[in-house]
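Good day; I would like, with your permission, to put a structural problem before you. What I wish to show you is a protein chain and, alongside it, a tokenised description of its three-dimensional fold. Here, with my thanks, is the record as I have it:
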Amino acid sequence: MIVNCGSIKTKHFGEILEKENLNYSIITIDDLTDEHLKSADKIIISGAPILLTEVDPKPYLKKFEILKTLTTPTLGVCFGHQILGMLEGGNIKRTKEARSSEIINQNIPSPLFDAIPQHSSFEEDHCESVTLSENFDLLANSDSCENEAMKHKSLNWWGVQFHPEVSQEYGPALIKNWLNLCSAKG
């Protein structure tokens, strides 16, 4: 299931999943219920045109709070990444604006980056980031963001600040790696 939080890039997740012959559904964040999240076997949370530093984040966090009780593999992208981090104690902050391709530096080996070279470019579209809480391992950073990719230490949550769904060279490979991790239980 893809949760569309208002990003115009969300449809590109579907295009990648179709190439993998996977069925999927897209639900808007406004229509999202706990039942949707409980019934999904994999969850992708998209980006959003929402600045969490400029709104009350509590309603958004409440929408996804149930994920803490589920074992469902979840990938948060941009806004979704920030939500996952905040659910586990991370703080949102303004950062250097990044609106183009940027080099992502892998900090530690991770199956999320299998067959993706160190210092690969991914598309960015953000001006906020989430700090890393003690419940996550930092997987990657960049010049514009200290927390570009993270993995929860006990839940099957993965987050990336960049946008693999529109990163032509390595984006589809990263999503495929995540799909493989869903099968392998992270």
Observations:
- The helical segments are 11-19, 34-39, 58-64, 79-87, 171-184.
